[in-house]
Amino acid sequence: MKFSKKFLLLFIFVLLLVLLGTSSLYTFGSDFKAVVLTSRKLTTPADLSTWDGIVKLKTELGLDVKIIECTEIAEYKEQALAVSEEGYDVVYFLYDMFLAAVQEIAPQYPETMYIGLWIEIPEEKQQPNIKPLFFRPNQGSFFGGIVAAEMSKTGKVGFIGGGINPGILQFLAGFEAGLKYSGRDVELITAWAGTFEDPFKGRELALSLYNRGVDVIYQVANLTGLGVIMAAKEVGKYVIGVDVDQSYLAPDNVVASVLLDHGYATYDSIKQAYEGQFTPSQVYYGLNEGMPVIAIPDNIPDEIKLKVEAVKQKVIAGEIEIPTTTTTR
Questions:
Q1: CB 115 within 8 A of CB 273
Q2: Which residues, at least 6 apart from 45, have a Cβ–Cβ distance to it below 8 Å?
Q3: Which CATH superfamily is domain 137-260+298-316 in?
Q4: What angle do CA 320, 219, 52 make, to 5 degrees?
Q5: How far apart are CA 121 and CA 307, in angstroms?
Q6: What is the pTM of this model?
Q7: What pLDDT digit, counting tens, does each position of 48-73 carry?
Q8: 100-126 pLDDT, tens per residue?
Q9: How far apart are CA 306 and CA 303, in angstroms?
């Protein structure tokens, strides 16, 4: 029996597909697609970092990544269910407002990989196709505390949080510990905006603290924090940024920025899923995972930068344990 050349080539191609296995095709095939569920437009500092990670997934890996904004609470479960039904390989969700819906839906779609940012799930409650990602905000905040103590002339520093929740309290715990570690006699004054979306409220609170003698404020308040930076520029005081390097907003006033690289986590976790390395184990992003946690501008004295770098190595080596809880309010 004679076979045509075209038939033989087709037969060899099919045989190669079988030998490669479906998992390899699934992992590296061009049809791999991911969706990002968010409760708001990606316009905040942290979310712009997430966007950078999405762009990198598209440009470097050629992945199809779609973004869906869920502006109403009722949409969380509805959209999570819809994208699961549509067959997305990865459903990436930002923050814990989607978690309950995902935990309910995930068992129905065992082939879908769900990845949640700023999510902590105890080991005994983990599900096989949900991967929780969390940062170590206490680490960068610890170094921010050292910088604040070193830069303060009045001995009074402030902390402005957008709201009181477990994540924000970890920022405060690290900052407070850094102040103490510096060895300087520093008073910490805290204030809570009650919102992460109001720059005018942030400016108002910051001016109030600066008028009380505070000369360095660490803001962990998203858009509200932009108002804190605005106030620092107005009165010529210092401020510590958050999430991304915010020194460009006020080069003479931002003495450090605590980094929580959402783009790094987004790219790293979805890339691992794409390459077949998905696991449901909890991931914490920080120094030991290779993520930068503090940015200090060039105009800060070298001795401060050297001190921070030396302490950083001690943290990496496990010689310093930074707390995650605080009694300060």
A1: yes
A2: 222, 225, 226, 242, 243, 244, 246
A3: Response regulator (3.40.50.2300)
A4: 85
A5: 35
A6: 0.81
A7: 889 999 999 999 999 999 999 998 88
A8: 999 999 999 999 999 999 999 999 999
A9: 5
